[in-house]
Specification:
By secondary structure, the protein is mainly beta. It contains one helix and eight strands. Strands 1, 2, 3, 4, 5 and 6 form a six-stranded antiparallel β-sheet that branches. The chain is globular and about 45 Å long.
Length: 136
């Protein structure tokens, strides 16, 4: 059943913009309390990501295609994962951090739920701030 209360937004980022910072600013501007990334395609001139179970980031400069971007977004915190491919097609992915700079474009669709509010609270079992879903 289609939920007609959900709202979808489309944004395009330009060369030189920071992918994560731009998404965060967009979420704040539109007061998105419970959203998710539907799709994202584009390219980067550098990346800064955190691989699984690591506390430090990995970064590199070059030309990278954005293969996928997924995750939850909220004015209360975002959790985003990215997959990218280099000029040879080698693909890597991890947690999206600040410092992923757009090369030509990033075309992003975000959906916002009218039913929920997403919060992030430290989970004692994982040690990370994890998603808490609350009704509006």
């Amino acid at each position: 059943m289609k939920n007609t209360n959900d709202v979808s937004y489309v944004l395009r980022l330009m060369p030189g913009e920071d992918l994560r910072v731009s998404i965060k600013n967009f979420v704040i501007k539109y007061k998105i309390e419970a959203g998710w990334i539907v799709t994202c395609v584009g390219s980067l001139v550098c990346y800064n990501i955190r691989f699984a179970n690591q506390h430090t980031s990995a970064s590199s400069k070059g030309h990278f295609e954005i293969i996928n971007l997924s995750g939850t977004v909220s004015v209360n915190g975002c959790h985003l994962h990215i997959s990218i491919a280099d000029d040879k097609g080698t693909t890597i992915g991890g947690h999206l951090l600040n410092g992923c700079i757009i090369y030509t474009t990033a075309e992003i669709v975000v959906t916002d739920s009218a039913k929920y509010i997403f919060n992030r609270e430290k989970d004692e079992a994982t040690g990370w701030k994890e998603l808490h879903i609350n009704p509006k």
